[in-house]
Amino acid sequence: MENISELYDVFQQLVSLTSGVETVILADQGRDAPTGLYATYKPIPIRAYGWSQRRRELTPATEDTAPALGLWQDLRETVATSMEFILSVNIINEGADSAIMRLHNANLRQPVSEFLYRNEIAWRYVSTCRNLTGILQAGIQPRWQADIHLFIEHTVSYELLRAAGFDIQLTNEG
């Protein structure tokens, strides 16, 4: 994953699988809320963990090279590291209390376990479930919130110039 937007669809499916809620939307989009039971999610990158791994592959030269060098190639380096994420999940409307409870230990159930493996996501834990109904004075609209802590591989790729090439002329006087 190089861009967080690559994970939106994966996170949407993960929230649906773990909570059992069918309607799952990305938070903070400024749209009208759906009717009935629904969940919102917001991915929050926290920090990188562990040692980086580097992979290099040959690419066509990005700068002009001297013909004497032949078919010169540059490198594209990709650095991969584990990134810790918090996936903040809000579940809203009737049935939210039951749905939020399903998040705990969801990584040990099928098909969630297989989904995590297939998408190379490491599940750490789920935070305490928080009842936001009273806090937000939304007495008629149940609202629960929890954070899913995950590890996901994050990559950054960039070009490395091996050499642009140059000519050397030796003159022997004497």
TrEMBL record:
Query: What's one Pfam family here?
Result: Phage_tail_terminator_9
Task: Determine the domain of life of the protein's source.
Answer: Bacteria
The record's InterPro entries line, in alphabetical order, gives: Gp12-like (IPR057087)
Instruction: Using the record's annotation, list all stretches that form the Phage neck terminator protein gp12-like domain.
Output: 6-169
Xref: NCBIfam families: LIC_12616_fam (NF047498)
Protein name per its UniProtKB record: Phage neck terminator protein gp12-like domain-containing protein
Q: Which organism is it from?
A: Pectobacterium aroidearum
